[in-house]
Design goal:
Helices cover about 30% and strands about 20% of the residues. By secondary structure, the protein is an alpha+beta fold. It has three domains: about 90 residues, Uridine Diphospho-n-acetylenolpyruvylglucosamine Reductase, domain 2; about 110 residues, Uridine Diphospho-n-acetylenolpyruvylglucosamine Reductase, domain 3 (2-Layer Sandwich), CATH 3.30.465; about 210 residues, Vanillyl-alcohol Oxidase, Chain A, domain 3, CATH 3.40.462.20. The strands form four sheets. Strands 12, 13, 14, 15, 16, 17, 18 and 19 form an eight-stranded antiparallel sheet that branches. It has a five-stranded antiparallel sheet with strand order 5-6-10-8-9. α3 runs antiparallel to α5 and α10 packs antiparallel against α11.
Length: about 475
């Protein structure tokens, strides 16, 4: 994701009527029953120093969602440091009849890491990264962030093809797909997941992958946090030494010509060019602009030849591209603090053509809040190839991922910002690849219909079969849910 800088489900009461996030009738019943007080002392003994409850110091900071429109009140947050802690947390939650939410890096815009009345399994103390440069494998803790993974792998001239913001979690990002600068040469992040350790709904530890259950690995490659808590991710590493990247910015009226050149470059190759575009209005100048961000794995000579058409005969306003380390490329988009208000929604596209581009330019000029833009991520090269062993991710036949992102500060703007973003996403529907958006950018009110559409019926049925084996009671339901019944 790159940045230029809820509807009826916003707010706690309304969340109860939201189709996916809501507490089901079953968990409502749990909430109404008193929880055996002994559970907390037993869990505290099993995970010393790791259990936080309502009223404890720092409780409100701990339950803060990335998205400020989301205000959820879990029953407890268990900060796990090991697989054994996760097992203990899950078993105690099940014994108390509590639903379970999973927090990796905490960046879900839908707020899936926190849930009313739930026990939150937080992996914030599981951020270890071990690199085996000979086998080109990284073994990563379930709560690691990209800022943990990237320096450890780059020390060996290697990288996990990940996301583009250092403080996001690799857990949620991998399980939902994973779009980043290296996807043209190495595919999505989930395609590089080669095995994993998972604690399932009954507290059993299972191995996903060739030495365990290959079908579970298939499901983890895009099927989200539906199947259990991933305590260890093993990733195949890609050699990455020289990088060249930055932003090329143009006035919106040149967007059609720029897009034509971009499509020409993508069609000719090389596969390494995986641009991400933003279309938004600059707050200072009031000018609507198209920004082309890229992080090209290759030398300056190669990259400059590839992007030459984007520098020639086009009205460039700004060009900050140049040779940069992979770590610097990964920080190129900066950071976004927690508690800003967000609504993101979109579609993977069959094609991004001039008609849609013109439509998006017209829409973005009507934004009700200053920070609203379209993000257009190219799906190119290896990202379009099914990985060995396959993946649940269901949208690699698309050519672009298009998302409208609205970010604002005051609750007074909620209604109009959200209404505008929903309409903006709706306008893309005729170009949609399969009627679904990107799981990792889903809003809190994502519908079951869109979730199913994003996988297609066959993949969804296969995911439901895995769900039935590992979580038949749908204990892990604060996610883009795959119900056990399909
Ligand atoms: C600023 C920003 C930049 C982003 N940039 C990119 C980008 O470049 N590319 C991209 O593809 N996406 C990007 N995203 C989207 C990102 O992938 C999702 O927000 C993702 O959910 C973040 O993962 P997390 O672990 O931080 O989230 P969390 O909120 O902690 O987790 C979200 C959900 O994922 C599941 N989950 C997380 N960890 C585990 C685990 N270990 N085991 C089981 N389930 C787990 C759970 O269901 C959890 O509720 C960005 C998001 C933000 C906010």
């Amino acid at each position: 994701m790159v940045a230029p800088v809820m509807d009826s489900c916003v707010g706690r009461a309304a969340e109860r009527d939201c189709p996916i996030l809501n507490l089901s009738a079953v968990s409502r019943t749990f909430l109404e029953q008193p929880i055996d007080a002994g559970i907390w002392s037993k869990l505290g003994a099993a995970v010393p120093g790791g259990v936080r409850r309502r009223g404890d110091d720092g409780w409100d900071d701990a339950r803060q969602s990335f998205n400020g429109t989301i205000d959820r009140h879990p029953e407890a947050i268990v900060s796990c440091a090991s697989t054994a802690d996760v097992v203990a947390a899950i078993r105690h939650a099940r014994a108390a009849g509590l639903p379970i939410a999973i927090r990796g890096g905490g960046h879900s815009v839908a707020g899936h890491a926190m849930a009313d009345g739930a026990l939150v399994v937080s992996l914030d103390r599981m951020r270890h990264v071990e690199v085996d440069p000979e086998r080109r494998v990284a073994r990563v803790g379930g709560g690691a962030l990209w800022e943990d993974v990237d320096p450890a792998t780059q020390a060996h001239g290697l990288a996990v093809p990940g996301g583009t913001f250092g403080d996001t979690g690799d857990g949620g990002l991998t399980l939902g797909g994973g779009l980043g600068w290296l996807m043209g040469i190495a595919g999505l992040t989930c395609d590089n997941l080669i095995s994993a350790e998972v604690v399932t709904a009954d507290g059993t530890v299972v191995e996903a992958g060739p030495d365990g259950d290959p079908e579970l690995l298939w499901a983890l490659r895009g099927g989200g946090g539906n199947f259990g808590v991933v305590t260890r991710f093993d990733f195949a590493l890609t050699p990455v030494t020289s990088m060249y990247g930055g932003h090329l910015r143009y006035p919106a009226d040149a967007a059609g010509a720029v897009l034509e050149e971009i499509h020409g470059i993508i069609d000719r190759g090389p596969r390494a060019f995986a641009p991400m575009l933003t279309l938004g209005t600059d707050a200072e100048s009031g000018m609507t602009r198209l920004s082309v961000a890229f992080g090209y794995p290759g030398t300056a000579d190669e990259a400059e030849k590839v992007i030459a058409p984007l520098r020639r005969d086009l009205p460039l306003i700004e060009d900050d591209s140049g040779s940069r380390s992979y770590i610097d490329i990964q920080e190129m988009s900066g950071r976004l603090p927690f508690a800003l208000r967000h609504y993101w929604k979109g579609h993977f596209l069959q094609a991004l053509d001039a008609e849609l581009l013109d439509r998006l330019i017209a829409i973005v000029r009507t934004t009700p809040v200053p920070n609203a833009f379209f993000l257009l991520e190219s799906i190119v090269g290896a990202a379009r190839d099914e990985p060995v062993g396959g993946a649940a991710f269901g949208q690699r036949g698309a050519t672009w991922n298009a998302t409208v992102l609205t970010i604002w500060e005051s609750a007074a703007d909620d209604e109009r910002a959200i209404a505008w973003a929903r309409e903006a996403a709706e306008a893309m529907l005729p170009w949609s690849y399969n009627g679904g958006g990107y799981a990792n950018y889903a809003p809190a009110d994502e519908t079951p219909t869109r979730v199913r559409a994003s996988f297609g019926p066959e993949r969804f049925a296969r995911l439901a079969a895995v769900k039935r084996r590992y979580d038949p009671d749908n204990v892990f339901r604060f996610n883009l849910n795959v119900p056990p019944g399909g």
